Structures are given as C-alpha cells and as structure tokens.
From TrEMBL:
InterPro entries: SAM-dependent_MTases_sf (IPR029063)
Keyword Methyltransferase applies: yes
Stretches for region Disordered: 1-25
Coiled coil start-end: none
Biased segments, Low complexity type: 1-13
UniProt record, GO biological process: methylation
Signal sequence range: none
Protein name: Methyltransferase type 12
GO molecular function: methyltransferase activity
Keywords per UniProt: Methyltransferase, Transferase
Length: 288
C-alpha cells in the first residue's frame, strides 16, 4: 500500500506543530544532558523503536548495488545529538543512553569531560558493521557535540527550509544512500526533502517515523517526483512519547482524527503515535 492510500490529506508537516509542546531550549545545548533529562519523564522512545528498523533498512540499502564503490552513507535528518547514529552503529540502547546522561556521574562533568567520556565509550561500543553517518540539524551545538564524540562523520546545520544546501553539505550528499528521520516530522517539510534529493548522486532511500498528527502526503509527493515510491507500514504504530499535558493530548487527538486516524487506543491512551514510511526507487522497492 502506498502511504496516500490510507492517509488523509489534512495539514502539512510544517503547520502541524501548532498544539504540540515545544522543546527548543533543549535542542541547542553544548551536550545532550538536558535533552535526556527533560525527555526522560515523557518517555521519549521513538529512536529505540527506529533502531532495528534503520539497521535493517541500511543493511538492505548497503546490499543494493548502485554501481558505486563504497558503502553509502546514512543522512540522519534532524539528527540532534546523534542519537540515531549512536543506536545504528554502536552496541548501545536508548535506555542506556538515558541512564548515562541523567546519571550523577554525567551531571557532575563539564562538557569537555563528558565529550572525552563519550568518545571513549562509543569507540568501545562501535559495531563492526558501522556505516558512515552524515548529520543534519539546525542546532549547531548539538551536531558539533555528536561530531566531536565520533557519532557523526560529518555534520551540517544548513536550514533547507530556507535555502539550498551549501557546498559542504552538497559534497557530503554525493555519498548519501539513506535518509533517516525520527522526531523531526513536525519541523521539516517537502522543501527539505526536495533540496536533499536534488543533490543526491546515489539512489537515496528514505526511512521516516512521523507522528500521526502530521500529514506525510506533501513529502510523499515530493519523493515521488524524484522517482521514490513510499510504502506505509500499516500493520502497526510506534509510540513516540507521553503527552506533556492534557492540552497537548486534546490537540493530538483532534489532529490525528483530522488526518484520518482513529485516536481510540492510541492518542486517547496518552501518547503520541508515529507511522513508519519507507521510500525507495520503484525498481528497488525492497525486493531487488
Ligand atoms: C525532537 S528533536 C529529534 C532529535 C532526534 N532525531 C531524536 O529523535 O532524538 C527535533 C530536531 O529537529 C531539529 N530541527 C528543527 N528544524 C529543523 C530544520 N529545518 N532542519 C533540520 N533540523 C531541524 C531540531 O533542532 C531538533 O534537534
């Protein structure tokens, strides 16, 4: 089934943030401690659900012969502190990351000390099948941290909602083979995806977890214009986090309903739910 078969067309990725709690103050800190401390009580968990899915998608993308030498890179969109890169390339769980960054030991460190501690930690947990990861996020301190500790091979802060990629990101995109996305569907629109795909040199697949409160339709159409067919995994949803307050829940129930979803047993039960969308060139389509 294509995503548009089962989704309403109400709203857009850019406009659906209206009633959603904002966490801007934890996105651009010099290290991830505030991010994990603030999100722990809300049980933000979508990167944990994404971990096996992204590993599988990347294994399939790496096995797909695109006629170019070398393993294609993952482009983690809205990468923040490199959480998806940590989970993809290292033997580590999101639960361990919460424990690590909220621990008294971490809380007592300076950012420089935490950076050194993390660098050693992730080097020791590196998986043999690790793949290159390019990080893109407008939060400069967050991506700088992820790069400094070795989670990202390269990091960029271009805001593709506002302008085309600069020369650095354009060069890096030549090697990208898979875009991953968690937690960013309320912030970016088809503009960002179009800008990325215009610079792609290798087949660029997309694996995206997007809130049910947001319509993926405009992005799906932008991807289709670049030869990508989007398939929605309609078999299940994935919980993202608890609602911050009853007002946010009321917004999410209304937005999910407006997008054609039944909130019963989902948003009505207290958490945001996401859907998983996988986009691949028609010819590949996961069965190459
Ligand atoms: C909820 S966080 C998700 C971080 C990470 N992917 C995760 O799941 O833990 C959303 C991120 O989107 C980033 N963001 C917002 N607008 C953006 C844009 N136009 N381009 C790239 N990143 C953006 C924010 O800076 C923030 O780091």
């Amino acid at each position: 089934m294509t995503a548009s078969d089962s989704k309403g067309s109400t709203g857009s990725a850019g406009s659906a943030g209206g009633g959603k709690a904002r966490f801007d103050d934890i996105y651009d800190r010099p290290d991830p401690r505030a991010y994990f401390t603030r999100l722990a009580p809300l049980e933000y968990e979508i990167p944990a659900h994404a971990q096996p899915v992204f590993r599988q998608a990347m294994a399939e993308r790496a096995a797909f012969d695109d006629g170019r030498p070398g393993t294609p890179a993952v482009l983690d969109l809205c990468c923040s502190y490199g959480i998806n890169a940590a989970l993809l390339n290292h033997d580590v769980t999101l639960a361990e990351m919460y424990e690590r960054y909220t621990s008294p030991a971490a809380q007592a460190m300076t950012t420089a000390e935490l950076t050194a501690w993390d660098k050693e930690f992730y080097a020791g947990r590196r998986r043999p099948d690790a793949v290159p990861v390019i990080g893109l996020d407008i939060a400069a301190p967050a991506v700088a941290y992820a790069h400094a500790v070795g989670l990202l091979d390269s990091a960029f802060t271009d805001n593709l909602e506002q302008r085309p990629p600069g020369p650095g990101l354009s060069r890096a995109l030549a090697e990208a083979g898979l875009i991953t996305l968690t937690g960013g569907g309320s912030y970016i629109t088809a503009r960002t995806f179009t800008a990325l795909l215009e610079q792609a040199r290798r087949p660029l697949w997309v694996s995206a977890f997007v809130l049910r409160t947001v319509s993926y339709g405009p992005i799906e159409r932008a991807l289709a214009a670049h030869g990508l067919r989007t398939v929605l995994d309609s078999s299940r949803t994935y919980t993202q986090r608890l609602f911050a307050d009853p007002r946010e829940q009321r917004y999410a129930i209304a937005a999910a309903r407006a997008a054609g979803h039944d909130p019963a047993g989902h948003e009505q039960a207290g958490r945001f739910h996401t859907l998983y969308y996988a986009s691949r060139p028609d010819a590949a389509d996961g069965r190459h």
